[in-house]
Amino acid sequence: MKVLVTGAAGQLGRELVRVAGSREVLGLARADLDVTDRGAVAEAVGGLRPDVVVNCAAWTDVDGCERDPERARSVNTEAVGFLAEACDAVDAHIIQVSTDYVFNGEADTPYSEGHPTDPVNAYGASKLAAEEASLAWDGATVVRSTWLQPADSPGMVERVVDSLVAGTPIEVMDDRRACPTFVADLAPVLIRLAEERVAGVVHATNAGVTTWYGFAREVALAFGLDPNSEILVPISEDDLGSSLSARRPSYSALDNSVLRDLGWEPMRHHRDAIASAVARITAGSA
Asked: What per-residue confidence (pLDDT) applies to 126?
């Protein structure tokens, strides 16, 4: 299976290329392929003729998208249409990586794949339109995930550990809830979805629902420190005032019901992923 990963310089794209194993994987970063250029996309996909394209390319600056919705539509929506069209021309399967931000956050239980969408910001709207653009082509897959954490660069775990070690207070949001997801766990799921050409919308997240403050407390516990430490300062979105341009969904946990119905093993709990990340950090500093 030949896999083309667009957005290969991003945290998920890098991990997909890393875990692909014996498969032939072609990673194209923004510098290699401008996905907003329809002709360039058609030429790249037509020339490489992959079996599967996993699109990780996106503009994920939520506040930036709110300030410049035209750019958001160009990168996050129109480009997906170009990729899907190019895939159709060579009979390649497309997997579009999407987001929990397609929901409005008013639920109190995890969103299933079939739950009505209702984005509350320009980023979510652009990603929902991208889902529609890809699903317009027969057999496409849309994979929604939440709160991605990197495998090979500093993320939330590292930020919290650094603050705990230095004794420097860190403000952590405590009024949004979702499923923190580590790309090291998500990437193999995407590869398997590619192999099996599972069509339609799929939710894929680490298990467990929490806030960023709850996440930080789990980091402290894994590090052997007091989770009630005054270093961890819970705050709300209101505390950030005008620093945010875009509204965020307050609850965007996802129910991985399609994967469950397929009989797949659930992705590990985010608590276990945090513990593994802390162990890696600790081993690296020893």
From this structure: 98
